Amino acid sequence: MQDADNASDATPAWVDSGYGLSSRVYENDVAKLGMLPAVYRKGGAGLILHWTITVTVLGNALVAATERGICAVALADEQPKLLEELRAEFPHAELNHVPDHDGIIAEKVRAVVDALSGKAAKVSVELIGTAFQHRVWQALMTIPRGSTLSYSELAECLALPKAARAVARACAGNRVAVLVPCHRIIRGDGSLGGYRWGLPLKEDLLRRECSGVAAR
To answer: Is 210 a catalytic residue?
Structure first.
């Protein structure tokens, strides 16, 4: 299989147009729906984002959600960095900090904690991106825990075999760590490739998922 760095990027123009999903569907234990593009382009103006930082087996995790679902999961050792990332992503949203056990977000936090431990998670996720990004992220959520695909293999699953580079960019644009499992994508040569939240974390996530599958 070709790696994303070597594949020709012949993705049709339509993949970069259109946002959102109009209906709620369940696939691989995650519900998906889309944020309106105008809201995101305005920096989240008019939105109330409930957020918290919780300690997990893999360190600090920020979970942010609208009334419709989780819109961001970020991972970092330093808590201030997590909040800075959220503010940069949604500069005009109202950010409402709540404890991780608060009823408004507790169920979502539990889902993230479970996912970081390598367990199955079921929760609503509000995805933000183009039509093509949504296709990639949905395809990511069909990859079973304990399994991986290369960028090229995922592109082939989308019936766009020459779009490996575009697939790689869509994976890099994922803002919802673990629940949209871009960590299950590796390079064609079997190496881990990149990861927004760091390669050691990607390696640990994959190890935990493989261990969880083997323990069944």
So the answer is: no
